[in-house]
Amino acid sequence: MDKNSLSQLFNATLSQDQNIRMKVELALKDYEKQENFMNVVLTIICSEDVDMGTRHAAAIYFKNRIRKGWNNNSTNFIGISENDKEFIKLNIIEALSKVPQVIRTQLTSSINIVICNDWPEKWPQLVPSLTALLSSTEYQHNYIGVLVLNEIVRIYQFKKDEREPLIQVVEHIYPLTLKIAQNAANTDTLEAAEIIKLIFKIYSSSIQCDFFPCLQNEASLVPWGTLFLQIVEKDIPDEVLPQMKEEREKYQWWKAKKWAYKCLNRIFSRYGSPNSLKEYRQFAEGFTQNFAPIILKSYLKQTELLVNGRFISSWVLHLIGDFYTECVKPKVTWQILKPQVEALTKYFIFPLMCFNAEEQELWEEDPVEYVRKRFDPMDDFKSPVASAAAFLVTLVKDRRSRTFMPILEFINSIIETNKQPQDMNAAYQKDGALAMIGILSDLTLRKNSPVKDQMGSFLINLFDDFNSQFPFLRVRICELITKFEDLELNDEVSKLSLQGVMNCMQNEELPVKIASCLALSSLLQYESVQAEIGPHIGVIMQELLKLLNEIDMDTLTPLMNRMVELFADQLAPYATQLCEQLRDTLLRMIGEATVENADEDAAGNKIMASMGILKTISTVVLAMEASPNILAQLEVTLYPVIHYILEKQIIDLYDDILEIIDGFTYCQKKVSEVIWSTFDLIYKTFMDDAIDYIREMFPCLDNFISFGSDVFNANKDYQNKMFEIIKTIMETDALDSTERIYGCQLMESMMLNCRGVIDNYIPEFITLSHKYIETPVDEDEGSLPAGFIITCFEVIINAIYYNPLLSLSFLEHINYTSTFFTKWFGALDKFKRVHDKKLCIVALLTLLDIPFENIPKPLQDGWSQIMFALINLFQTYPKAVEERKKLEDDEENYEDAYEKLLNGDDENEEYVEVEGDENVIDGDGEDYLQLLAEAAANEFGLYDTFEELEEELYFQTPLDNIDIYIKFQDIFQFISQNQVQSYGLLTQSLNPEQQAFLNNVMEIANQNRIQQSQNMANPQ
């Protein structure tokens, strides 16, 4: 092995011939076994006499080899030898200085992997090497040192439990980087900007989770803060900037400025304001008093430059807006900001809100891209417009008496001045004012808003803009209809709004059409609007489909879903045609999104749009529940897309496509031949790569068993595959115990729905579940959750109910009968749901139905305990029913409250304002977080740490149709007459109170029989 021969191999990896590339890969695998192999690879990477393409190929290989082989213990993979590792650690940092940027990226990634695995314990030389590089007077050495430092900080910035290595670096290395940045700040070179940017980025990364004491003290804070402000205020003459705005945004000094702003903003917002985390309150007090005012004044100076026509990058504008927002709440900064509010409203916020020539150009050249930027909230998340909007809302919300009416008067003056704009500049200004009122819409509609009663007439006065000669004003009025959807409009006004919106939907401009669709969605709350568009719903849906095909975004799918929900009857004749069009659109989008070398952003948009379309299809399926013939047609129509997504394993769409399959089976309460043809695909998908999607797959799998039991019971292959899924769930390390609950529930479903046909699986089911009951502790999870243990109990209880003699025989075989019943009866209070108690009761009653002589001896010895268990279960059953009914009644109220909280301000919420200029302290976050936590728990049907199972309100089983009181009466009367010994042992120890309770159970059974007879005689 020598450098030249190995170089030739790496050069051959660039060949277009796949056979040559395969031979090279095999040759490299042989070389991997040799000592010093990686040393030679690194030498090739650093050699200037080797072709650049070959060096780059070697660098990529080097990175991948380190990623797979540095810390590999697999016997199937050759790890990197210790000698090679030591050579790499001694030479890789120096190698960074010998390679161009394209290769340097691969080496820094390699260093990251080595640091992750070896530092600090196995790479003690790293920090001394860094110190030497950062102490040098040569730029190249400094830059390489900063690159490596960046990798250390990237690794440790979010490791909250491993802070000490990072603290040591911050204490000893940061002073060196500070000196480097200070020296660079006094020059104007692009190299200086680059290293400052990187140093500030490192500082920012290290303060994401916490702010170390060594950075809080004045000896560190003052020089760093001074440096940040120096870069913030550094003059960059416009004449040195590129002409194109896109290139200006990327200019190195503006990137350095961006990170200076980010560092200052982060220190203030997270650690230095009165609303900071409790552990930083003392630091915040000093920072707010001594540092924040200086920063704010500096930012105001930069804003003044903007007003005077100087360039400021979009990122920096965004960060300035964010800082202003934070300065509204603290008293000290508010007193500085307050005199500037009028000017900032007029010269900072308002210009950012206005439509402009740049947007006009994008609209004309690429209307689809304009729609994406305008209507995609994530695309706007880090824009100057978003931060200015947040600043505006915070001003009006938290400093209302000083800002609310003056800002509204400013907005109104702009609108009145430009009521009927005749030129573009006037239209731009009106658009900005309307944008501002839209942003403040929630606040103007609050209970004690002084303008709440005027907003209806204000909106009506803007209706002329539905026909404006400026298309962007049509977009804006449509947007205002959406913003003011909580404004209660009378029938006349809502119809006028609809007329304007429908007029915009006919406009030839794509952004106007999209805005009108979103406005229509808001108007659908009015019955008068529903009545108006009902007869035209087919035409409207066709227009929506046409637009959907133009933009390939999910913007319109919420409207489509809403219309399907509201107009199910009117759409029924078009349902198949609608789903055909949705299917074809979907297949086109998915195909374009998954093609090789697809543009990442465009593919992401198409996948998101595909999710939206699938949700619309799901809504159509559920809406057709009462039309079985239509559902049958839809199954055939939609099968190609179901098959395509599962066969091609498009993971991002699993959730939605599985929901559609679930909808078909749930609505029809049967599994058709078409849907059965998806079972093998789902099985293969699960076994190949979708174990993590068991939660999404479970409803479908359960429906195959419960609603398709006739086919499932007759098909051994289906049964075997379902068992393989269950076994994988219960045994794989890829799932935790809360996900294994789905395995238990599938076993239960098989035993409840496949009576008498799955005897061969009963021992397997008991084996899979009983080990968790016996060893309720996991190496990774600790004590297993009670909810999971209960479902494991219920697998065995179901087995007893399914076939008591077979199950008892196996329990005896594994010597587990006595242990199981003792544990079961000892945990009865944990069986809290209606389903739990019903299952326990029917299983115990099934045992009573067996001839006593067939009962295993261990169970005979404790036979009386069965009666005590039954009494316990019947005594607590009414309470469980009551709790379930309460949950059903509360569910809708809970969802309404959750939605209202997520949607933000309630229109009935009153302003609560602090007196004078005092600090504004946020205090409403804890309730929100608590509700989110409960909602997240609800997603799984479990609360907190899944300690207990909660009622599953929509979960149906054959047990639902069993009247446990009548069943108890039938069996108890039977054994009293036919199994005297069993009956005697069950009742001999009952006290009078227990006997009276059993008589009450019998009386309830009599009443239930009468009710059943009446129901049969008078069916609903």
From TrEMBL:
Keywords: Coiled coil, Cytoplasm, Nucleus, Protein transport, Transport. GO terms for cellular component: cytosol; nuclear envelope. Residues 877-904 form a coiled coil. Its main location: cytoplasm. The keyword Coiled coil applies. One of its GO terms (biological process) is protein import into nucleus. It is found in: Cytoplasm; Nucleus. The keyword S-adenosyl-L-methionine does not apply. Residues 24-98 form the Importin N-terminal domain. GO terms for molecular function: small GTPase binding. InterPro entries: ARM-like, ARM-type_fold, Importin-beta_N. Transmembrane segments: none annotated. Pfam families: IBN_N. This is ARM repeat-containing protein. It comes from Piromyces finnis.
